[in-house]
């Protein structure tokens, strides 16, 4: 503050000096004017004096000297008076300065006794003067430059307000008083006024009751502002809002409340205590409050004459309660529809074979269908916890169900970027178990992602196999000897192989132009001549009949070629044509047909000849056997030993020949198709015994041991007893024939559920493997070491009779170990046709 007074003193002295300098300059100017006037007068009198004896220049010089002397005298007088006045002024100023300093000291003492700080601005000065002080506990900035940076030690709101008031004070002289808050929460009183062209800001610490009063005033102001803002906000809400005192009386309602109760104004509602809720609703509200005094639940309310559903929120406190109602009628309706839609979608998605999973904006699982659970084979209890997707991916990776990744963290982070994506994305997952999934991530506009998992393993496999099959078919078609062509429903060729162009002599240019079948018909006219076959094929390709059928035929071309053709209708409306050049085949077939006719005719002649000769030989052979027996009979006389020996030879040879003739006749009967079986109930054990009994002489003669393995429960079967015995007789006879002297033959029977199997086994030389396929042929027989035994009809007859019963014959043999023959007869014979038995 003293500095301000010193400044004003310096200003006064400067003004005095300037005034004194001004007076001096003014005196010089006056005397200069006077001298100039004298000089002018002298110049005027010079002409008058020119004629006299007086020197004119001397006169001028005298006048100028007199003027200068007069100026000097006048200036001296003025200077003396100015100095005397200056001395008096200096004495007065010193006295005033002493008084001012004393007054300043008193003022400073007064300022020091009070906690206040003065900031004084002189004119447009940027930095103010400072006087006074504030308590040290305020911790204000030390420097003046930092002190005027109000934002550093005042809160933002106070700093902005103080700057605005200071601008008005310094610009317009508007005084102000306001309360400021420091960043430490301490209140200061700021007052601004002007004094002698100075702008003065006074900061004073509010202590004690004044601090408390300021704090309460500030809080009261904030509360009023908050309440006003809150009431404005509630008044703008579309739903009713109200406030009650601690006696339950309405003290404030918003405009929506007034409209809901159809009142005139807010004052009317408060004065008349018009209630929005009925008494029953208010009682329910008071009874169902939570322990913290809050009620929040939907409630039906009649508002503006309509029954609607409101979401009520009512908060109770010791000073009263306040409530808010939001109309959720439309929301309830939409939520109901949404709930039903979601349930329908859930049921639909749960029935889909495509796995679906929905994750919310928080990355947690919100929904999954049965196919999703089945795809990953995850415990349902884990899915019910709604895990976060990252946790779910980690669990799948631990179970080795995710694609193998070298950088799993990077892959996982990139996968989770789907939540920030704008469009749907697709990924291909190749799982360790060989499956391939196409994963589609569709982000939600409200956040979250829906995943669709499409198992394309079979599709890719089918595509791969289809492509491979297509290539194979293409290669196959190209290398087929048959000519193949495929025509579309429009009659134009879609596909053909090189054999088609070759067989019909078509150019590659024509085939590449997708010709119509009629164009091909025109190109083949020279080869077809007057044949109508191509017209038939054209109608089959271009016909519009719903029931298209395959056409098969043969055509003979002009060049002598014979072509077989087949048309196959395709499911897509097209037609497949195949052509085969069967010229050589037809020629061979015709030759074979002629040869076959000749062979059949020769075979018929052979059969007729054998049958006729057999019958013709049988009668004289019977006579020979009869007379040989008579010769051997002692009733007709004795024979010499030699004659008896010859007679035995005749009987044995005749019997063997008769047996061969009978076999030939049986085979001829079979070949003629007139063999008839006499089916009856046959005792298996007895039939086997009878067959063995007929071979006892041969067994004794060959020193062969025959072992019979017959179960006690072998029972019976339906068959031709004579033919069955003949089969067993032939098999046993064959086994004896091919057994070594002193050998062993086994016959056994085994009964199954629906058949009986006879097994005859010898331990002879066996049959070579190259002969096994021929043993059932006629007139084929080989003995041990390749020697022939018999005519080779026995096994052929066995095979024919067994197959006539519906059975089968199997033979196995190893050289040096013997032969085994199995004959299987069904319990109920399925008599085959005689042609099938051939």
TrEMBL record:
Its catalytic activity?
ATP + protein L-histidine = ADP + protein N-phospho-L-histidine
Listed A to Z, the keywords are: Kinase, Membrane, Phosphoprotein, Transferase, Transmembrane, Transmembrane helix
Name it.
histidine kinase
Kindly name one Pfam family recorded for this protein. HATPase_c
Source species, domain of life: Bacteria
Checking PANTHER family in the record gives: OSMOSENSING HISTIDINE PROTEIN KINASE SLN1 (PTHR43047:SF72), TWO-COMPONENT HISTIDINE PROTEIN KINASE (PTHR43047)
Q: Where is the Histidine kinase domain?
A: 612-829
Q: Which residues cross the membrane?
A: 21-39, 59-80
The record ties this protein, via PROSITE patterns, to: HIS_KIN
Could you say which EC number(s) this protein's record lists?
2.7.13.3
Say yes or no: keyword Metal-binding present: no
Root EC class: transferase
Q: Name one GO molecular function term.
A: kinase activity
Q: Does the keyword Ion transport apply?
A: no
């Amino acid at each position: 503050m003293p500095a301000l007074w010193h400044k004003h003193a310096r200003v006064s002295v400067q003004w005095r000096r300037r005034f004194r300098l001004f007076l001096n300059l003014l005196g010089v100017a006056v005397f200069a004017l006077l001298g100039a006037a004298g000089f002018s007068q002298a110049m005027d009198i010079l002409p008058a004096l020119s004629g006299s004896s007086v020197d004119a220049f001397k006169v001028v010089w005298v006048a100028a000297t007199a003027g200068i002397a007069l100026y000097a005298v006048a200036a001296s007088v003025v200077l003396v008076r100015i100095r005397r006045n200056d001395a008096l002024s200096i004495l007065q100023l010193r006295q005033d300065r002493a008084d001012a300093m004393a007054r300043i000291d008193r003022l400073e003492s007064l300022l020091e006794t009070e906690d206040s700080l003065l900031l004084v601005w002189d004119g447009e000065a940027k930095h103010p003067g400072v006087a006074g002080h504030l308590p040290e506990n305020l911790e204000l900035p030390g420097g003046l430059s930092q002190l005027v940076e109000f934002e550093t030690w005042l809160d933002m709101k106070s700093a902005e307000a103080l700057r605005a008031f200071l601008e008005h004070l310094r610009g317009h002289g508007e005084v102000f008083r306001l309360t400021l808050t420091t960043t430490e929460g301490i209140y200061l009183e700021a007052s601004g006024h002007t004094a002698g062209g100075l702008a003065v800001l006074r900061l004073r610490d509010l202590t004690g009751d004044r601090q408390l009063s300021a704090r309460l005033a500030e809080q009261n102001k904030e509360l009023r502002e908050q309440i006003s803002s809150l009431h404005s906000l509630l008044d703008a809400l579309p739903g009713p809002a109200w406030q009650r005192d601690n006696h339950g009386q309405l003290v404030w309602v918003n405009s929506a409340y007034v409209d809901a109760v159809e009142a005139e104004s807010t004052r009317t509602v408060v004065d008349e205590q018009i209630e929005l809720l009925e008494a029953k609703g208010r009682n329910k509200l008071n009874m169902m409050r939570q322990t913290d005094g809050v009620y929040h639940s939907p409630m039906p309310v009649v508002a503006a004459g309509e029954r609607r559903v409101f979401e009520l929120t009512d908060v109770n406190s010791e000073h009263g309660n306040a409530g808010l109602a939001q109309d959720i009628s439309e929301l309830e309706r939409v939520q109901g529809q949404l709930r039903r839609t979601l349930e329908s979608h859930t049921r639909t998605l749960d029935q889909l074979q495509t796995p679906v999973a929905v994750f919310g904006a928080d990355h947690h699982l919100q929904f999954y269908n049965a196919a999703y659970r089945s795809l990953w084979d995850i415990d349902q209890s884990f899915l019910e916890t709604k895990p976060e997707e990252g946790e779910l991916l980690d669990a799948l990776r631990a179970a080795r169900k995710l694609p193998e990744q070298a950088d799993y963290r990077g892959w996982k982070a990139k996968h989770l970027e789907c939540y920030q994506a704008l469009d749907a994305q697709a990924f291909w997952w190749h799982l360790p178990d060989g499956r391939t999934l196409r994963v589609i991530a569709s982000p939600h506009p409200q956040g979250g992602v829906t995943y669709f998992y499409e198992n394309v393993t079979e599709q890719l496999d089918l595509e791969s196999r289809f492509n491979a099959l297509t290539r194979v078919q293409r290669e196959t078609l190209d290398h087929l000897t048959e000519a193949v062509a495929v025509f579309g429903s429009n009659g134009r060729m879609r596909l053909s192989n090189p054999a088609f162009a070759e067989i019909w002599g078509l150019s590659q240019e024509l085939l590449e132009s997708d010709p119509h079948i009629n164009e091909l018909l025109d190109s083949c006219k020279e080869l077809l001549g007057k044949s109508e076959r191509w017209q038939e094929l054209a109608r089959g390709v271009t016909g519009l009949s719903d029931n298209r059928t395959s056409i098969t035929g043969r055509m003979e071309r002009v060049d002598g070629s014979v072509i077989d053709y087949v048309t196959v209708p395709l499911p897509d409306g097209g037609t497949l044509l195949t052509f085969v050049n069967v010229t050589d085949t037809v020629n061979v077939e015709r030759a074979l047909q002629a040869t076959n006719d000749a062979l059949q005719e020769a075979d018929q002649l052979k059969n007729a000849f054998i049958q006729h000769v057999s019958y013709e030989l049988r009668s004289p052979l019977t006579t020979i056997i009869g007379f040989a027996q008579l010769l051997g009979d002692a009733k007709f006389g004795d024979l010499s030993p030699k004659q008896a020996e010859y007679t035995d030879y005749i009987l044995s040879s005749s019997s063997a020949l008769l047996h061969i003739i009978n076999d030939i006749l049986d085979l001829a009967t079979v070949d003629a198709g007139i063999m008839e079986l006499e089916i009856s109930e046959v005792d298996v054990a007895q039939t086997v015994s009878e067959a063995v009994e007929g071979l006892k002489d041969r067994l004794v003669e060959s020193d062969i041991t025959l072992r019979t393995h017959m179960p006690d429960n072998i029972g019976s079967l339906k068959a031709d007893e004579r033919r069955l015995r003949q089969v067993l007789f032939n098999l046993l006879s064959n086994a004896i024939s091919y057994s070594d002297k002193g050998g062993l033959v086994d016959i056994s029977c085994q009964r199954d559920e629906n058949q009986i199997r006879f097994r005859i086994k010898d331990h002879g030389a066996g049959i070579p493997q190259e002969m096994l396929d021929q043993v059932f042929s006629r007139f084929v027989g080989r003995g041990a070491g390749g020697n022939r035994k018999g005519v080779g009809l026995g096994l052929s007859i066995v095979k024919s009779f067994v197959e006539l019963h519906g059975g089968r014959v199997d033979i196995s043999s190893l050289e040096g170990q013997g032969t085994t023959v199995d004959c299987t007869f069904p319990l109920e014979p399925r008599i085959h046709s005689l042609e099938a038995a051939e």
